[in-house]
Structures are given as C-alpha cells and as structure tokens.
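Case 269 in the screening queue. Each case pairs one protein sequence with one candidate compound; here the compound is D-glutamic acid. For every case the pipeline is the same: read the inputs, emit a complex structure as tokens, and attach any notable structural observations.

Predict complex for case 269.
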Amino acid sequence: MQGIQNRSIGVFDSGLGGLTVVKELRREMPHESIVYFGDIARLPYGIKSKEQILNFSIQNTLFLLKQKVKAIVVACNSSSSAAYHFLRDHFGIPIIDVIMPAVEAAACVTHTGRVGLIATHATVASQAYERSLRKINPNLRIFSRACSLFVPVVEEGWLEDPITEQIVRRYLGGLRHKNIDTLILGCTHYPMLKASIRKVLGPRVQLIDSARPSVKKLKSILIRQGLVSKSKRKGELRVFVSDMPRNFKQVGEKFLGEKLHKVQIVRGF
Ligand code: DGL
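Case 269 output:
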C-alpha cells in the first residue's frame, strides 16, 4: 500500500490563478505530487455570496479528498475568506488557507503599521484579513479596496499594458494617500499585475504575495506531521478543471510558469 507521505497535495481555486501557488509549491517541494482543481465553470467566486462560495469550496474539497490527497491548500482568497474555518474544522487532513500566511508576512515587514489590502468584493466584504491582522497585532491599520476589473484584465493577458496601468491607477489612487508601506495582494490573479502595481504605488510599498508564505506554512505542517514525500523523483502534477474555456492553456501556463499537461475535465460542478 502507498504510504500516506507519497499521496499528493491538493490545491483548489475558482480558476487557474491558484496555479501561482502550485508554481511555488513545485519550487519549494519538488518531490511532492500535486492534484489541482480549478472550478472554471463557476468562476468568478469573488462576486458571489458567502453561502455560495462555502458550498463550492466544500464540493471542491470533497473532490480532492476523492483523489486521496494528504493535505489541501485553499489557494483562492475568496474561498479562504468564506470557507477556511469550516473546512479546517470538518475535514480530517491539514488544510491551509492563503490569508493568515499573507497577514503574518505583512505584519513582519511593515514599519509604519499601515497595510493595504486589494482583493475581490467577497474577500473585502468578509473582513477576514482585518480579523487576522487584528489577531496578530491590534495596532496595525488596514486599508482595503475591491478591484473588480483586475481578474478579467489578467485573464485577457494584459499584464503590462497602458490600459492595465490606467485601471490599476484608478483603483489604487486612493491608497496612495493612505501612506501604506505594505500591500497584500489578496487575490490569486493580482501577483500577475505586480509590475503595474509597483509603477503606481512606487518602490517603497512592499507587495505581499500569499503563495510563498502559504507554501512555507504547508511545508512546516507536513514536516511536523511526518507527511513529507519520501520520493526522490520530481512530483507529478495532475490538473482537473470543471470547464475548459478558449484561452485556458495560455492563461494557465502563464500562472504556472511551465507547460500544462494532463488536464482533465470533471463534469457535474
Ligand atoms: N480566485 C479568486 C480569488 O483569489 C479570484 C477569481 C474569482 O473571483 O473567482 O479571490
């Protein structure tokens, strides 16, 4: 029988943005196999109600559990904000969100205690980041903005386009006057807009991308629980999606930073 250590790590997102977390996972833990589920058929989550996102997240978790994963990363910020506590409390394997790790990283680097957050409407409305920041350091101040157009812009592939810069400027203009020194990129897609965000906010604002701290947290949990893969070979990556739109491969490979092989459609989502 296969040892539990050699089971895959499950990662899910509303779409393909969570592949940025997979990219980091493959860099940090190359021997781990990964099963990714992107719920493209029901994307976007970021404009839906908490109840709906919770339902979707439970279904995604059940799908990954059927693939016999040993741990799950909730790579979607909207899911992390609406469903993480429920998932953590109801399923018997390690489940990692992307919010607390990002908040811990932000709390470490801020000097002024003034932290910006950009995310989807669902994530901003949930106030999950505020609650997590307050737990770590109640003196930190957080300034949030929902940036609805960022996801479609990234999906369109306009990463460093004058239009993108204009859109970024429009959303982040207000934050420039808040004297933040740290900005949490609280959505899977936003790390792809780092160049434009840097141009608008300037080099003094540190950008926090949740992929790295989340993967570090997962790694420490796997080590602590004796769940690290014993394999010496490069881990496999299997990608499942609930739909395969036109530009799926192109967008996915941008997030992942490598070729997408072995993609399967799962119906019924
Ligand atoms: N994955 C979502 C998030 O991180 C962004 C896309 C969506 O709205 O579904 O919030």
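Case 269 observations:
- The chain is about 45% helix and 15% strand.
- The chain has a mean pLDDT of 95.
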